[in-house]
Design a protein that fits this description.
By secondary structure, the protein is mainly beta. Helices cover 8% and strands 37% of the residues.
């Protein structure tokens, strides 16, 4: 089963990003932006653009963190099926890597938006089950180093048992993406006007060839047959 978020106008799911933007580039400013319970800035919520970012870094005078949300209607998976594999994919348009220090990666987390069909400022701290070190939905080897991400192509994350266990067979499955400094709460140390970023296509792009996608492998559980032998 392959599923994508709904484009605007959303009916079941949505995708986009929530941003925290704070004036200043010191540790205290990073902490304020990172620990915010709601997005802030001129446009803290982005749901209707053809591309959104997973990002940590600086503008000329500000600290900026973008967390991405993607929702998938997975209710078509039969309730009795066993899920054996899941692959989450984002189509990467461009990248930047201003702080290439080993924490410059993108990872997949769960999220719990207030609504499945819209994002609000308050969803900023709901992308991930914790502000610091949220549970990643894949093994650590699936963290994607930004410098190694291909552009104009999909990047795939293979979900582990935790990720597969968070796929709903009765409704909407929500996954998010965060940058490494944001995940581990490590001050971005790049220069002003640099970011660690993956700019990714959203469902508003024409067709589904670049949309976020979730591919789920599932099947009816195997039931052993029983033979009865009658000896006469």
């Amino acid at each position: 089963t392959t599923v994508y978020p709904d484009p605007n106008p959303e009916t079941t799911t949505t995708d986009g990003a929530v941003q925290s933007l704070i004036v200043g580039q010191l540790q205290a400013d990073w902490d304020t932006a990172h620990d915010a319970t709601a997005g802030s800035g001129p446009s803290p919520v982005d749901v209707d653009d053809e591309a959104s970012s997973v990002r940590s870094g600086f503008t000329a005078t500000q600290t900026v963190i973008d967390r991405m949300h993607t929702g998938f209607d997975t209710s078509s998976i039969p309730d009795g099926d066993t899920i054996s594999a899941g692959v989450y994919s984002l189509y990467v348009q461009s990248t930047s890597n201003g702080d290439n220090d080993g924490d410059d990666f993108i990872a997949v987390v769960t999220d719990t938006p207030a609504s499945n069909t819209a994002l609000v400022d308050g969803d900023f701290d709901q992308i991930g089950n914790a502000i610091n070190n949220p549970t990643e939905q894949h093994d650590s080897g699936q963290r994607k180093d930004i410098s190694g991400m291909s552009t104009s192509a999909y990047t795939d994350w293979t979900l582990n048992a935790t990720g597969r266990g968070n796929i709903s067979k009765t409704g909407v499955t929500n996954f998010g993406a965060r940058e490494g400094h944001d995940i581990i709460d490590s001050l971005y140390a790049g220069a002003a006007n640099t970011t660690n970023q993956a700019l990714c296509s959203m469902a508003e792009t024409a067709g589904t060839g670049e949309d976020p996608k979730l591919v789920v492998t599932h099947a009816v559980p195997f039931a052993a047959s029983r033979a009865i032998v009658i000896v006469t």
